[in-house]
Amino acid sequence: MSIKMIAPPVPNVPWQEKPEGIKNAPIWRYTKNPVIGRNPVENVARIFNSAVMPYGEGFIGVFRGEQTNGVPHIYLGRSKDAIHWEFDKEKIPFVDEEGNPAMPHYAYDPRLVKVEDTYYIIWCQDFYGASIGLAETKDFKNFTRLESPFIPYNRNAVLFPRKINGNFVMMSRPSDSGHTPFGDIFISESPDMVYWGKHRHVMGRGHAWWESVKIGGGAAPIETSEGWLVFYHGVSGTCNGFVYSIGGAILDLENPSKVLYRCENFILTPEEWYEERGFVPNVIFPCATIHDPDSGKIAVYYGAADSYVGLAFCQFEEIVDYIKKFSKVTEMDTELGKR
Length: 339
Fold this sequence. Notes:
- By secondary structure, the protein is mainly β.
- Helix content is 5%, strand content 44%.
- β17 and β18 (241-251) form a beta hairpin.
- The chain is globular.
C-alpha cells in the first residue's frame, strides 16, 4: 500500500507542472519567482520568511515585513491564488488576554498553523533576548498574544497541526546569544499552550556539509500514513559566509522525536539570482507548505536571500521516495531524544 497524505483537501493548491530535465531532488521552482518582490507596501522594504495557508475560498498569510527603519514585524496578507498577494498596510494589531495592546518590540520569521478550530501564529521576538512569540486567532481580525513558551534563546518554532497523545507539540531550535553555533531541533509538549515540558531532542546538525553548522524547523509538519513529513533548513559555513538550504525528513507519528528517515542530500539549495543575491545572500528558508492529499501536490513557500518570497513544487510520493532513497540516520536521530 502506498503512503498517504493525511490533510484536508485543497483543490486550488497553487501549481505548475514538472519540467523536464530535473537531475536531483524532484522539486522545481515556480518560473515566475519571486512571487513577492521588494517594497511590497508602504514603509516595508522587503517581505520574506513568511507563512501561508488555505482560508475560506482563498489563502491567507503572516509575513515578515522588514520596515524601512530596519525593524521586522508581522503583516497580514490575503490572496485568491496564493501567488498574487495583497497586504495590510499596518502591522498585525496584537493584544493581550485582557484585550490591551501588546505589540512585540520586533517580530520575525512567522509560522501559521491551524490546530482544531484555532489558528496559531508563532514567531521569534524579544523576550529579554531572542525567543518565541505566540498568538491565536479564529477570524484573522482579533489576535491575542499568549505566554512565551520558552526562555531565551530560541528560534524557529513551529506547531504540529494536531495534538499528539492529547498535547500540543511544538518544534523549536534552542540557541545562544550569538549567531547560533548551537543548532539542534527539539520538540516540547503542552496541555494548554501555556506550560511546556517533556522536551525531547529530535535531530542535530548533520554530517553532510550542507547542514553541518545548524538546522532549524521550517514548514509545519505534514501528517502521512507513515510519519510526519518535515521540510527544514540546514546551514553550511563557507569561506564567504553561511548558505541556507532545504532538507527533508520523516518523523514517527506518535513519537516525533524519533527520526525514521532523513535525507542526506539537500532538497533545494540557492541557485537562482533571487536566492543567491539579496540582503543576506545564499538563503533558501522554508516556512510553509500548501498541500492537497487528493492530487499529492505540495507547494513550498520559502524566503529567498532575506529579500523575496519564492515558491517551489513537488509531488508527495516523489519527494517521500527521494527522502527514503537517500536517507541516512544516526543513533542520535532514532533514539527517543531523552537522556
